[in-house]
Amino acid sequence: MDAQRAQEISHSPVMANVSFNGTRIYIEHVDQQTGNATIHPLDEPSNKQSVSVSSLMEQ
User: Fold this and answer.
1) Model pTM?
2) DSSP code per residue over 13-26
3) pLDDT tens track for 25-49
4) Which is nearest to 24 in space by CA: 43, 50, 9, 5?
């Protein structure tokens, strides 16, 4: 995924089906400058991490 698409998903009111390493995630924030996104698994909102948007997969 590219940073622009990740940004669109993070701002959309519609929940997109996005995964990181096979786990469905929620994109909280995208840093366009670094190409990183702050994410968390859907069932673990307190388990936040910063990952490269290129590692995110949209189903």
Assistant:
1) 0.92
2) SSPP-EEETTEEEE
3) 999 999 999 999 999 999 999 999 9
4) 43
